[in-house]
Amino acid sequence: MNLKDSVVFITGANRGLGLQLAKAALAVGAKKVYGAARDPKSVTLPGVTPVQLDVTKHDEIAAVTREYKDVTVLINNAGIVRTGGILADDSLEQARAELETNVIGPMLLSKGFAPTLKTNGGGAIVNILSVLAWYSQGPTNTYSMSKSAAWALTNGLRIELAAQGTQVVGAHMGYMETDMTAGYDMPKIKPEDVAAQIFAALAEGKEEVLADDLTRQVKLGINAEIPAYIAAARAAA
Ligand SMILES: NC(=O)c1ccc[n+]([C@@H]2O[C@H](COP(=O)([O-])OP(=O)(O)OC[C@H]3O[C@@H](n4cnc5c(N)ncnc54)[C@H](OP(=O)(O)O)[C@@H]3O)[C@@H](O)[C@H]2O)c1
What we know:
Elements: E1 7-11, H1 16-27, E2 32-37, E3 48-52, H2 58-67, E4 73-76, H3 91-119, E5 124-128, H4 141-160, E6 167-172, H5 191-204, E7 208-210, H6 213-220, H7 228-236
Parallel strand pairs: 1-2, 1-4, 2-3, 4-5, 5-6, 6-7
Helix pairs in contact: 1-5, 2-3, 3-4
């Protein structure tokens, strides 16, 4: 798609990957960038219009999809991770929180903005997923549940929005240098690199971004006799 003069709506745009996506949108010549956040005062990047949005509040989703009729690109970026695993005492509460933020919010925003994207010529939706859509690693198993579901959401949206010409991009990445992985000592990709890859994919009409080596290896390995998600369990035995 042509990104110059696009109107980009980004959730969780105040920090982390969302902030880098906002910078990248301005860099490619977006006409307008809506930076949505739970606290709009935390959206301080010049050139970005702050918007109040908690993606778990369905009335706020209804309000923004009603109000912003010029949007051509929706980026579902806001996300949370909880640790503890499926057998933890509080796993129901934690999984529900992850599913509300990482799956139901993006679903309702996509559904709400779909007619606007159609009116505006098709446009695009980008869902920020994870390598953990295809791999579980213990403490973040309920997060993986949510990202697998968000992957299925992305694939379903792509089918249902094909007729109206909406490009639907699933962006997967391993560890990024953001607050989410603070304290984890491992190789991390820079969020600005990921943001650049996502805008390149939008410009080239691609459906998927595999942002780093870890993600590419895990995706390739899904066909292996012992894929990573089974090897992880054997290693844990
Ligand atoms: N970091 C990684 O290694 C990694 C890897 C793969 C995928 N991801 C995905 O990348 C996306 C961005 O994460 P990040 O790394 O930038 O994490 P981050 O630095 O922790 O930022 C998370 C963002 O999501 C927002 N958010 C959380 N819950 C929200 C809600 N209910 N409503 C609105 N906004 C909400 C946060 O806003 P507040 O400031 O209000 O909390 C913040 O802007 C997420 O979808 C995450 O799952 C991250």
